[in-house]
Amino acid sequence: MNIPNSLTILRILLIPVYIGFMTYGKYGLALLALLLAGATDAIDGALARRMNQRTQLGAILDPLADKLLLTSGFISLAVLHLVPSWLVILVVSRDIILLLGTAVAHVTNVPIDITPTLLGKGTTLLQLTYILLVVLMKWKGMALSLLTPLLITMVVFTLASGLHYLYRGYRHTNAAPPLA
After folding, report:
1. Which superkingdom is the protein from (predicted)?
2. Of 83, 136, 150, 178, which sits with the fewest C-beta atoms within 10 Å of its C-beta?
3. Nearest CA-CA partner of 84 in 139, 164, 154, 25
4. What pTM, to 2 d.p., does this model score?
């Protein structure tokens, strides 16, 4: 266990804190929990690279922490009727499909490249920005309809990155030699 992995675990532990604050309408504190989680995401990766402390655990935990944070963020916002349910279905379905594809490739010993793409990173950034802004605007009593352009952009990126990852997996799968 090193500092970057500890920060990633802290990010995971902040998820129930965020959900609790959202549940009780403490939007300012929920926003603070999200910002702290976002900071740990930026810091853990930078520290891992700078201190040469990249680990297999970190390679698994970091994207898992991101997915857990985003999924819980969208689900909590939908439960509170702050975002449309179809948005949660889109975001969560994309991640489940990608996770299942990765699991199938692992079980069948088909080598695939699971490194995040620029499109995937952009999607994550847009999704996190959207969640942060929804919580901020709810806290400040602002109209969430102001986020419609960001919502549309995020949906396009989510769909495009999902399709891109599927294409990449399909290409790797077809390029792999058949199993004996």
Report:
1. Bacteria
2. 178
3. 154
4. 0.88
